[in-house]
Amino acid sequence: MNISPNIFREYDIRGEADTELTDEVVLTIGKSFGTWLLERGVEKIVIGGDVRPSTGRIRAAAAAGINSVGIDVVDIGVVTSPMLYWSLYHLNLNGGVMVTGSHNPSEMNGLKLAFGKATIWGGEVQEIRGIAEKGVFAAAEKTGTIERKDIVDAYINMLTSKIKLGQRKLKVVCDSGNGTAGGSIERFLSALGCECVSLFATPDGRFPNHHPDPQKRENLTDLIEKVRETGADVGFGFDGDADRLGVVDERGEVIFGDRLMALYWAEVLEKHPGADVIVEPKCSMALPEEVERLGGKVVWWKSGHSVIKAKMKEINAPFAGELSGHMFFADEYYGFDDSFYAAARLLRILSQTGKKLSELMAHIPIYPVTEEARIACPDSEKFAVTERIRDKALKEYEGMTLDGVRIIYKVNSAEGGWGLIRASNTQPVITTRCEGKDREALQFIMDDVKKRILSEGLPDFEWTF
Predict the structure, then answer these.
(1) Do 156 and 188 contact (CB within 8 A), yes or no?
(2) In this predicted structure, what is the pLDDT of residue 414?
(3) Distance (Å, rounded) from C-alpha 81 to C-alpha 30?
(4) For the chain, which terminus, N or C, has the lower number of CB atoms within 10 Å?
């Protein structure tokens, strides 16, 4: 059978639902993953999915493939990715499948695979691919079973047991983007004692109102307007499977993940002084500056939720996050990315300080910075393109090469800013972001980075801010 090798990505399996993730392909992936799990002693797993039109079909095909090699399946239905992660603890299982296209367009979908209590990535995903391509699967004495279970109430009860707010009553606007968050975020925040105003809470995997990606400012327009209109204390935006969080302050100003992490670290480092602080190359200079001011030790590391979670365990980090809005709390939580919990941690800070969110953020610099731009580049070429750009840039500038290249630009021997160029691990694109200490420095960096990208024959693009 012809399975596109490009669907086996760094963190998950992802592709076009109707052409790349057909029933036959997904059935084979299920058999392959089941075979891989049996080799590691796993005999029962959990499966769930988001609200996309193709998810039910893919979930059923994956379960059938897993059952066919003799593994039992607990189907928890439509859930957020964090609910699936938590179910591994709640149901005491060591394997799982989350069917989701995350923040991608509705015609895309994918499978996040879990072993133990964490998602697999990198070489492990490629091992699943190898089994699928060989087509040799475990022989089952009997077909596995499917059990249906609803864990949503238990999940919300767990969250409310972990977070207690202060006396201050908070008004919150939540934009679920018609994704999986809409089914339960208002219930959770109401249980915490908040007044919740909901936007686009009705699950609809066609995403009729806007794309479910809170990293893009254009997708936060309705949230910003509603926060200002209602006088809310904060606005939250969620991606399609609710593992990422977008935040808007009471003035309607967007707080992206790197600056948000700086606020979280102030609380975490107070209880964990001197802790290792993972910073990924997309992040603003303001984050490591604030971390060092707070007494934390900066550890630069690669982007990607699975990669960062693995690094956290390796160095025993109490918290980490990404510019994209993944937040991983291991100090009082499980260490996986959960937007509901991350939102509640921010609400706890707000309720206990009595300050407005803009006041809490005021001391953290906002340097001139672009949003992340994504330039189309085939999966088969994107890593080679990035390597060529990296090698040429390092002949002229210092740089960080953990993940693509973060070119460090100097002004009068001091850091004037940086430009990042890297190959996406989830899409056929090259991504880039630039930041300068001032507007003049940023313009120079943008011009230089764009020249390097266009010299590789990639399409022209415009920066957004």
Answers:
(1) yes
(2) 64
(3) 18
(4) C
Instruction: Enumerate the active-site residues.
Output: 102
Question: What digits encode the pLDDT tens for the residues 415-431?
Answer: 799 999 999 887 889 99
Query: Which pLDDT band holds residue 260 (cuts at 50, 70, 90)?
Result: very high
Listed in sequence order, the residues at least 6 apart from 248 whose beta carbon sits closer than 8 Å to its beta carbon are: 173, 220, 223, 224, 227, 234, 235, 236, 237, 254, 255
Q: Which two tokens stand for residue 117?
A: 């209590």
First-to-last C-alpha distance (Å) of the chain? 45
- How many CB atoms neighbour CB 22 within 10 A? 18
Report residue 387 CA to chain centroid gap: 25
Tokens of 423: 């190959």
Residues for the chain: how many in total? 465
Q: What is the pLDDT of residue 427?
A: 81
pTM of the model: 0.94
Q: Is the dihedral of CA 16, 17, 22, 26 positive or negative?
A: positive
Q: Where residue 267 falls among pLDDT bands split at 50, 70, 90? A: very high
Q: How many CB atoms lie within 10 A of CB 228?
A: 15
3 state DSSP class of 304: coil
Residue 462, Cβ neighbours under 10 Å: how many? 7
- Please count the other Cβ atoms lying within 10 Å of the Cβ belonging to residue 230: 14
